[in-house]
Amino acid sequence: MKKLIIAATIFSAFASPARAEFFTGNTLFRICSSGEFADIMDCLGYTTGASDAAQWRHFCPSEGITRGQIRDIVFAYLRDNPEVRNQTADLIVAAALKRVWPCQQSNQRRGGSA
Known about the structure:
By secondary structure, the chain is mainly alpha-helical. It has one domain: Orthogonal Bundle (10k-s Protein, Hypothetical Protein A, Chain A). It has helices at residues 2-14, 25-33, 37-54, 67-80, 89-100. The chain is globular, with a radius of gyration of 19 Å.
């Protein structure tokens, strides 16, 4: 057992480390404006996930919005505000959606803290 632990320790020293690479607005703008299927799906997936994380804390959507609407709003915001593209994409998604669907004070507590 001791040899197994030593072997695992040595192996892990040479394994490549896991890294989280966060999207910037530049990356999100590039993939959302690409015509490549994989990029289009990445754009849709990222904007949907980031909006789910920000919902009710940063913006309060109306009933029946679609993932395509979310993507379109975020893309238009990136296109019209190139000065923010160096920021992290999750903050950009929240800011873009907050412009369209701002929360009333009482709604901000619905899904989490304000």
